[in-house]
Amino acid sequence: MLIKKPSDIPSSEITPKPSYLSRRKFMAGAIAAGAALAGGFYLREHMDSEATVQAAGVKLSGIVKSPFSTSETPNSFKDITNYNNYYEFSTDKYEPNGLSKDFRTRPWTVSIEGMVKKPKKLDIDTILKLSPLEERIYRHRCVEGWSMVIPWVGIPLSALIKQAEPLPSAKFVAFQTISAPDQMPNQKRDVLDWPYVEGLRMDEAMHPLAILAVGLYDEVLPNVDGAPLRLVVPWKYGFKSIKAIVKISFTDSMPPTTWNRMAANEYGFYSNVNPQKDHPRWSQASERRIGEFRKRPTLMFNGYADQVAGLYSGLDLNKNY
Ligand code: MTE
Fold first, then answer.
1. The model's pTM
2. Nearest-angstrom CA–CA distance, 15 and 33
3. Least packed by Cβ within 10 Å: which of 64, 68, 79, 293?
């Protein structure tokens, strides 16, 4: 999902096609080039161990295990914090860890607004106490074709939503990342439309698998993974899992999402992991687990079909990608 300013893209990385005339379409070409590169890469040997040590912060206590966890072996803390998409910091997956280490996550307030009975501004430390912290070991499938297994710590998204008492007219939930160009270097640049935004249908948001992550491997969430609060929707491609959330709003119409704005023909609103629906320019049938050499088949809804397929009965997943 690499996007760079067209001027940053070496000609060897991309072959513009005649149809890629507008900025948006040109950038969509860059996404494909990035995916091709990402598919063949592995973690560099020389990762930023100093930044990792700093990110491996305070231990979280009172974490309960969740029946929703996979029994697959999680990727290492080092993998999970050194191969990241966090475009506010860099489009290079190895850079966000180092570049985000001084990002300020306190004080932090999340505004809950829109079609709710009780709009609120909640402090992050209040949010942490809304529900017991659960360890959720989830598969994480990036749209670019790589995957990991990540032991998140979080609370059900539904626990936060219930606080606000959404009105019956609220059909969607919209999420927004912080605007902090002083701290996030790429927010000063024309890399994506800032701030990063995402959305879910209300029933998706209330599904027990959808969580707000506040930790990783028993510790406070590293900045690079979206501290202090980040969405995790494990049956969807990773880009739905928006980081550093400051606003959650309820609406009756489908909210805009960053990647759909950038390339609507490639990234739909739903973004469910679907091995049968190719990305316009690459297959989604298989994935490479970071740390492995062989490719493995991608599972429908990323392996969570038993729990979530019912949300989409009657919906044409070919059209609603
Ligand atoms: N959220 C914000 N604000 N900015 C981003 O660039 N990248 C998305 C998603 N959330 C992104 C974001 C993408 S493309 C992916 S795959 C996941 O975060 C990566 O999460 P990870 O770095 O914790 O693996």
1. 0.86
2. 9
3. 293
